[in-house]
Fold this sequence. Notes:
Layout: E1 3-6, H1 12-20, E2 28-32, H2 35-43, H3 53-61, H4 90-107
Parallel strand pairs: 1-2
Amino acid sequence: MPILNITSRPDILPTWLRAMNAAKDIKSGARYDHNYLALPAVITGKCLLVAPEIIVSDLVRTGALYVIPGSRTPSGMQYRAYAVDRNDNPEVARAFCRWVARLCKKAAIPEAA
């Protein structure tokens, strides 16, 4: 089954393939500019998508998509929020970062065994 490629995040698929030890077993599929554009193609069941969980969490919760058992890998990537240090109210940036962290934790999907 082909795996979709996302051009806005070209690092995701190679990182996942290396972690799965499957780089030479890949059949590349269509390319999309963003994960959200690829979702309709994945929902048809004709291809696979490697994406951050927060992108697909609602679709998994509703049963439109399923997590493939054993497909979760640590990416080694870290995401951080940045703010201009001259801001008069740094607490606003800290509150925003805490809100994003809570949102990500809430959206995390436990992997099916």
